[in-house]
Write a structure and sequence with these properties.
With 119 residues, this protein is mostly helical. The chain is 49% helix and 8% strand. The chain contains 5 helices and 4 strands. Strand 1 and strand 2 form a beta hairpin.
Amino acid sequence: MDPVMKFLPKWFFHQNICMVLEQDMRFLSSQNEILMKEMTPVGKMYINLGSCDTWVLEYRKWKDRVGHGMPYYFGHSSISLPNDLALVEQYRAGLDAGILASVPAKGGNADIYASNPIN
């Protein structure tokens, strides 16, 4: 362990881990938009690294096995798109999506909700 890290309290690491997770939001929102536009499963568009994406890969494979009863899902080798979108984002993938995703609370800026009362 780094000597400097020994002097930092544990709450410091818990407080700052959200910054790392928020950085993934721009990728995830862009990825969902691309998957829906291309109608392609995740395994055909993205390479899962066995060293770090093991749990994500197994989760996607599990969705392939049991996802056929779900309203929609993104599996590793199969996909089922929703009939009605519950949330339509105003911003597209790219710089606008990155700016929107970097705001602390996603949904706080200019989201448009579709008129579907059951979702």
